[in-house]
Amino acid sequence: MAKKYYPYSFSMLVLHAGVKHIAGNMFESISNIGDAIFLKMILHMQNDEDCIKILKNCHQALPDNGKMIAVEIVLPTIPDLAQTARYPFQMDMIMLSNSRGGKERTELEFAKLATDSGFSGALRTTYILANYWVLEFSK
């Protein structure tokens, strides 16, 4: 099935024990085959309505103790003049000009998307590197 929909993308994936790559349309449904779903740089390309659609499908596919894990850029709530702090705002401008409603979001905006999608647990955020964060949505 994967090769039918994403031949190039799936041919480039590195296989790991315990990880299964599944092709599909996340706007329609997500297969419920595990206790976690991982999305990388997906939410920032979507408007709020489409983010909620994706997150609701993730929520529905997860078991009661499941988690949805996303890697995204998080906008700071207090602007900083440091060079590293400028990158999220530059990406926000790129999303504004090159996507249909996509944007970078603050932690509070991600938390609102989480609750609007049915996630009731606290949103956990962990800074990784170069303005990228891991966001953990819990049921």
UniProtKB/TrEMBL annotation:
Gene Ontology molecular function: any one: O-methyltransferase activity
Highest taxon above the source species: Eukaryota
Domain O-methyltransferase C-terminal: 15-120
A single GO BP: methylation
PROSITE patterns reported for this sequence: SAM_OMT_II
Keywords: Methyltransferase, S-adenosyl-L-methionine, Transferase
InterPro entries tied to this protein: COMT-like, COMT_C, SAM-dependent_MTases_sf
Family matches, as PANTHER family: O-METHYLTRANSFERASE
Protein name: O-methyltransferase C-terminal domain-containing protein
Species this protein is from: Oryza sativa subsp. indica
